[in-house]
Amino acid sequence: MPASITSRSFTDAEKLELQRILRALPGRLGKAKLAISTALLMWAASLAGAVVVWLIVAAVAKAALGLSFGWNSPYRAVVVFSAAVACAAVCIFLDYRWLRGLKNPAPSILADLEAGTVVEENYEFSEVKRLQEPEHGGLTYFLKSSTGRAYVLIDHERQQIGVGGDDPLKSSFHPRAQLRVVRAPDSRVILSSEFAGSSLSLPEPTDLLAPPSAWPDEDEYCPVPWDELEARFGEASR
């Protein structure tokens, strides 16, 4: 739990922000476009991979056994067509599972708009741990709260700097000892977040080596105990 939490009616600006977020959510047509584009990308990539594997196997078979079923053989059309159909079936299945697993926040946002309230959460932090994503240098911050649990924040400015090829440590983001978060209670949408108090000392970052599927949720408490963060997400996660 935060150090303190209060509930109040939302302001006009907060209501407008929730309405904006709701309007920006993809409708049925948007979801259909997303599903089709994702499936096509996966199909093209998997088909290219299957063709490469086939050509490698065919080359080895010809060299070792004298068998000919590569690109210039009569089997080319059958192999490519079969691979295309198989890849399409697998990609459609995976795409369907992925879409079904996506959460639809619209009902929760509608419930927040109907209730007309937000919660103000006040946190107090004493220590920071930083884990850095190796590819682009984005940083995930774990802030030790007064409850002993780790609150998770992601420095999105650093992510953009890293993607642009610059040093992500040049970001202006710097956590402080207090944090006030205004949140819609049902959807958990963050409407505002503001630090206050003294700056916290920043240690050198540890490499974030855990796969993205295992990364903790942003703007929430991490279920992993404070002393086990590096072991779970850093060096020992390899």
On the 0 to 100 scale, the average pLDDT is 85
Q: How many extended strands?
A: 7
Q: How much is the radius of gyration in Å?
A: 24 Å
Q: Outline, from the CA principal axes? A: elongated
Describe the structure.
The protein is of the alpha+beta class and 238 residues long. The longest helix has 38 residues, at 28-65. 42% of the residues lie in helices and 23% in strands. Helix 2 (28-65) packs antiparallel against helix 3. The protein is built from six helices and seven strands. It has helices spanning 12-24, 28-65, 76-101, 106-115, 156-163, 229-233; strands at 4-9, 117-132, 139-145, 150-154, 176-183, 190-199, 206-207. It is elongated. Strands 1, 2, 3, 4, 5, 6 and 7 form a seven-stranded mixed sheet that branches. The mean pLDDT is 85.
Please describe the topology of this protein.
Blueprint (H helix, E strand, L loop, with lengths): L3 E6 L2 H13 L3 H38 L10 H26 L4 H10 L1 E16 L6 E7 L4 E5 L1 H8 L12 E8 L6 E10 L6 E2 L21 H5 L5
Parallel strand pairs: 2-7
Antiparallel strand pairs: 1-2, 2-3, 2-5, 3-4, 5-6
Please provide a brief summary of the model.
The protein is of the alpha+beta class and about 240 residues long.
Q: Main traits of this protein?
A:
alpha+beta; single chain; seven-stranded mixed sheet
